[in-house]
């Protein structure tokens, strides 16, 4: 019962992060399941089945708050579903001994990306430009969907920054569109895992726990996307992912590091993580205090404070 409650809380927390950043539900949830010695394919299958419900609720909430561009959802989501099905069948064919370190390596890389991305740059400011092109969104969705299924996460960490970097869609609509299109990816990946490993290898009680927590958090996250500083949250989540998957890799048959070396590595990761969160918090507070020109009702300008 304690484990089920923990999974529900993880689902809630992961969806709050995902709905606010446009990434990290799958990465966070899969990392925990691997730490509980769940098989790689079973962990990814559990998370993707739960995501069918969480992404449906999240997408609906984002749509109601005006955070969704349906052209982007269609153009990135359909190729993403194809990539996710291919990734799920590929992962299902790997042995447990091979798949677990492979998945942890992917998750570690994604965690590093999330930590560096949000610590160094945060989210870009609105730079709305030309419409996004199919030739950009199609390959992006295909790659992100494949990585998402094989790594247990990756749709958001790959898709969200890529579209943000294009400067053609405001951040809240990027996050809303990526979260909404992930519904198609979750369905395709789940079908791939059901074909590849069968329903008997999936713990549906765990699916329900993750789903319940995520569904509670989804509408809150869609509202919070306009309210909370994503920079600090991104740095914090990136550190959790790096620390947990470093532990898995250092204890795996690939490395099998001695205990003193493992704890030394954990200490280094923890120190870097704390420094990153501290830096992000300071940068966020500094950006809020930057004076900016604000128009007054008389047609002139006065100096205000960025919020």
Write a brief caption for the model.
This protein is mostly helical and 307 residues long. The chain has helices at 2-21, 25-35, 40-64, 70-92, 96-121, 134-151, 155-166, 171-196, 204-224, 230-251, 259-288, and strands at 291-295, 301-305.
Which helices and strands appear, and what pairs or packs with what?
Elements: H1 2-21, H2 25-35, H3 40-64, H4 70-92, H5 96-121, H6 134-151, H7 155-166, H8 171-196, H9 204-224, H10 230-251, H11 259-288, E1 291-295, E2 301-305
Antiparallel strand pairs: 1-2
Keywords: Cell membrane, Membrane, Transmembrane, Transmembrane helix
Organism: Micromonospora yangpuensis
Family: Belongs to the 4-toluene sulfonate uptake permease (TSUP) (TC 2.A.102) family.
Secondary-structure-derived class? mainly alpha
**What's the order of the H and E elements?**
HHHHHHHHHHHEE
Number of helices: 11
Mean of the pLDDT scores?
77
Query: What are the segments in which pLDDT stays under 50 over at least 5 consecutive residues?
Result: 292-307
The description of the largest β-sheet is: 2 strands, antiparallel
Rg over C-alpha atoms, rounded to the nearest angstrom = 19 Å
- Number of E-type strands: 2
Helicity range: over 70%
Strand order of the largest sheet: 1-2
Subcellular location: Cell membrane; Membrane
InterPro entries: TM_pro_TauE-like, TSUP/Inactive_protease-like
Transmembrane segments: 102-123, 183-200, 206-225, 232-249, 261-281
Protein name: Probable membrane transporter protein
């Amino acid at each position: 019962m304690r484990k089920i409650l923990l999974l529900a809380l993880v689902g809630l927390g992961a969806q709050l992060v995902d709905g606010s950043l446009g990434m990290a539900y799958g990465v966070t949830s899969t990392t925990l399941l691997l730490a509980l010695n769940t098989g790689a394919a079973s962990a990814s299958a559990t998370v993707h089945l739960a995501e069918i419900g969480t992404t449906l609720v999240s997408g609906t909430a984002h749509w109601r708050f005006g955070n969704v561009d349906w052209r982007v959802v269609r153009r990135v989501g359909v190729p993403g579903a194809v990539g996710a099905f291919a990734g799920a069948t590929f992962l299902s064919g790997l042995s447990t001994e091979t798949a677990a370190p492979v998945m942890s390596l992917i998750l570690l890389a994604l965690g590093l990306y999330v930590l560096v991305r949000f610590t160094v740059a945060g989210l870009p400011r609105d730079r709305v430009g030309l419409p996004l092109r199919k030739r950009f969104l199609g390959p992006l969705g295909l790659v992100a969907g494949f990585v998402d299924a094989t790594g247990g996460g990756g749709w958001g960490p790959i898709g969200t920054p890529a579209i943000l970097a294009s400067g053609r869609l405001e951040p809240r609509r990027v996050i809303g569109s990526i979260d909404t299109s992930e519904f198609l990816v979750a369905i395709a990946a789940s079908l791939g895992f059901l074909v590849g490993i069968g329903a008997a290898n999936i713990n549906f009680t765990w699916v329900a726990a993750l789903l319940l927590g995520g569904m509670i958090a989804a509408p809150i996250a869609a509202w919070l996307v306009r309210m909370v500083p994503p920079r600090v949250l991104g740095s914090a989540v990136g550190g959790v992912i790096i620390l947990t998957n470093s532990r898995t890799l250092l204890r795996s048959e690939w490395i099998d590091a001695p205990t003193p070396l493992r704890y030394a590595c954990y200490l280094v990761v923890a120190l870097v993580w704390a420094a990153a969160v501290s830096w992000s918090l300071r940068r966020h507070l500094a950006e809020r205090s930057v004076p900016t020109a604000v128009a007054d009702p008389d047609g002139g300008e006065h100096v205000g404070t960025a919020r």
